[in-house]
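Issue: copy button drops trailing tokens. Both records pasted manually instead:
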Amino acid sequence: MNLKQIALTVFLFPAALYALPGVSAEEEHEHEHRQHDAHVHGIAALNLVLEGKEVHIEFESPAANIVGFEHAPSTEADYAVLDKAVATLKEGNPLFKFNDKAGCRMETAKVVSSLLDEEHDGHEDEDEHAYEEKNNKEQEHQEDHSDIEVSYHFECTAPDKLKQLTVELFDVFPGTEKLKVQYIIENKQGGLELTAADHVIKF
């Protein structure tokens, strides 16, 4: 599965989840509004899909939660904070801790934001500063609301034993107060809200 297919799978998942029986039109409307219009500091979103032995995670957050600002970096201090945040986000294993029996390890991570000149690709086999040109849509929103998006690809040796994920983002990025999670694990799907006091997903 290529990166475009991964992104399509993950971003289509929320719509599929809200189309499930028992989810009201009001909830679906609220979700769509949040996806397209809302930009709430302190709140971030995480989508997780298990496909075979692969776990795909999409993390999206207002830049303010991660670096403390949303303007284009203009000082050495701004660039230093941004570079540190990108490096931290690319280290997926410390941020997302699956239960040991599942044997999940990060393979790649890609960080995208209008604050960055270009995409930050986290392929292990490439130089960590290898970049790809970001799309025009991200550039258009630079002055209004800057987000940081990260796509993670994990490989699990025993995906059938995947039962739990501990999210360590809150301690690392204290500007993140709430994390809205949606997931598909085999025949299970669900959603929940994590906080620093309650940051474990049980599948």
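Record 2 (pasted manually too):
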Amino acid sequence: MAIWRTVVGKLWLTIILLVGVVISTVGLFLLKIVDVTVSADSLAEIKHLFIYSGAVGFLLTTFFAFFLLTKITQPLREMKQAANRVAQGEYSTRLVVRSWDEIGELAGSFNQMASELNTLIRDIQHERDQLDGVLRSMSDAVLLFDANGRVKLTNPEGQHLLEVWRGLKWEDEGEADERVTVPDPLRDIYDTLIAKGTTHTGKIHVQSGVWSVVMTPVASGEYGAGAGAVAVLRDVTEEFRVDKMRKDFVANVSHEIRTPVAMVQGYSEALLDDIAQTPEERRELVQVIHDESLRMGRLVKDLLDLARLEAGYLDMTMQEVDVNALLQRVHRKFSALAKERGIELVRSGDDAGLVLRRADPDRLEQVLTNLMDNALRHTASGAAIALSACTRVGDKGARQIEIAVKDEGEGIPAEDLPYIFERFYKADKARKRDSKVGTGLGLAIVRNLVEAHGGTIRVTSAIGEGTEFKLVLPAGD
């Protein structure tokens, strides 16, 4: 039907043009005939009439020709402009359908194409936004490399990791190609993956951090010639540290228990075999067995306390605590032992404001007992140990109470200070068994108990000058 309308329209244009030509030809022919039969005045009028008629016919023909030409070319120009706007990203562009011929059908097809293209682009943008949201929400670092090692895509964690690693100094930094941006820790994995084309997993160590790496090949021309790679890195430093602590814990517990068990077994067998000949020798063997059993008992008790603290199952009786009375009990408990060893034990004067509104007095006494026991074991005769407390104002204006235990003992090496609150950690690396060696759990228990009260503990020490532990507890006013 549309084709038929187009044919009719073109036929009308042809007819109009033919009519104009016929009128002009007939007019000229009649002029010749009239020229011989009419007078000169009539001839002039007839000539003017036919000239006017020819001019009007020509003008009408020209007008209709331009009208029809404009009707065809104007939609085509609009379609070209619309196509340019779509090419520039204006996918909502539409044409106005003014006819039902081929031009109108073409405009309708263009509108349908633009609509489908707009829907497709919107779906692609939606998927891209979803992918971007997934990448941004990932706590793992994601890095996408092309075949030349250039970074094509990262998420925020990956970008942060790249910035940190690029700020480090590497041994082969001067030899690296500036165009290759694969971080130095990943370069071997990346080269192996590009060569073999298979997924690679492993762990890398950068300074004190540990990362788990899964690198997979990406075969797509979109990211460069040949294949690239996508790497997912997870910071497993804490997991690695916990696993190492677990292994160290098992090793230390085995060591701590194995030796006293072996000694108890050996000395008890000696008693059974009547190796000890005199009552003094038998008493000495029994004393060793007793001491080692006490050591195992303390170890088991400390392990249970620490396990309950870390699991949050340790019962605590919170009440108002007079810190002066607490210091007095601890001072009285260790006075005789300090005097016996020739150590001066000093306690600060009473302060009426030293009151904790919510604290467990037994647990705080356990904390101070562990600290005093450490101080006595590492302080030589003739030196002093100071036990003091004072009030202070915290960062947010809250009142706090600071308790300090300061000795003039051997001191702790600087490299050991960050680790002294770890389980079984001992500044004395030799596993000696004498009166100066504890289980290595006391300070770990101290830290957990202080934190259970909402407080903090810090230590300062210098070799040969002594050590000072400071407990900061909220007064609870």
